Amino acid sequence: MTNKYLTIYNIIVEQIKSGEIPPQTLLPSENELKDQFETSRETIRKALNLLSQNGYIQKVRGKGSIVIDMSKFDFPVSGLVSFKELANKMGSKPKTIVNELELIKPEGFVRQQLQLGSKDLVWKVIRTREMGGEKIILDKDFLAKKYVPSLTEEICADSIYQYIENELNLTISFAKKEIVVEEPSLEDRALLDLEGFHNVVVIKNFVYLDDATLFQYTESRHRPDKFRFVDFARRSH
Question: Measuring CA to CA, how many Å separate 166 from each of 52, 71, 162, 201?
Fold first, then answer.
């Protein structure tokens, strides 16, 4: 015999998938669902928790449960692509907002990440990525000046990787990646559309040239409802 909360979960999932309950719809309250399905509030809570865990709804404090847009963007974890390349592949019309571009003497953390000396300078680039009118990615890039001698706002608004490869004739080869989930910072809150969201997915990239030179450290901070992080794995024998 199927648990009642699983039955309710499956009914709501089908309503979401069929479009009967469209994205951004606020689900009825726990009390209303309890009456609708003639069950206990605890059973409804279990069904809602499962819907949240599987990415169908986002619980928003003070509002309730909002249906998430299931048309998420596939973000290739193992690939090394620019935002422009990713957006073009998905057929989206993106917008990049350059919030900050400056040449800095890096603090200890960034200097350590890029393995630089105390006199080396770094380009600091902060960019907000907008898709469908929503600000959903905050990119924080730090690039060693000795490998990337100049940058402009125009280049940053278009594609830094395209500039590095086509104008500087450098070959970007590989990256080490770390993926963590964090609470949004004040900067995230200011530069992204995060109302109702309590986490961001952060991809930290350590990017190397083809001679194994580490030239870039990046933090890509993503709103969690818009991306599905995908990879292809093959078992070795």
Answer: 44, 33, 6, 30
Say whether both 169 and 224 belong to one domain. yes
d(CA 165, CA 163): 6
0.70 exceeded by the pTM? no
Residue 216 has, within 13 A of its CA and on its CB side, a CA count of: 27
Say which amino acid occupies 23: P
The CA-based diameter of the chain, rounded to the nearest angstrom, is: 69
Give counts: helices (H), strands (E), the chain: 8, 10
Q: Domain containing 36: what range? A: 4-67
Helices 4-18 and 41-53: angle between axes, nearest 10 degrees: 50
Indicate the number of domains in the chain.
2
* Cα–Cα distance measured from residue 144 to residue 215, given in angstroms and rounded to the nearest whole number: 5
pLDDT in tens, 78-96: 666 666 766 665 555 788 9
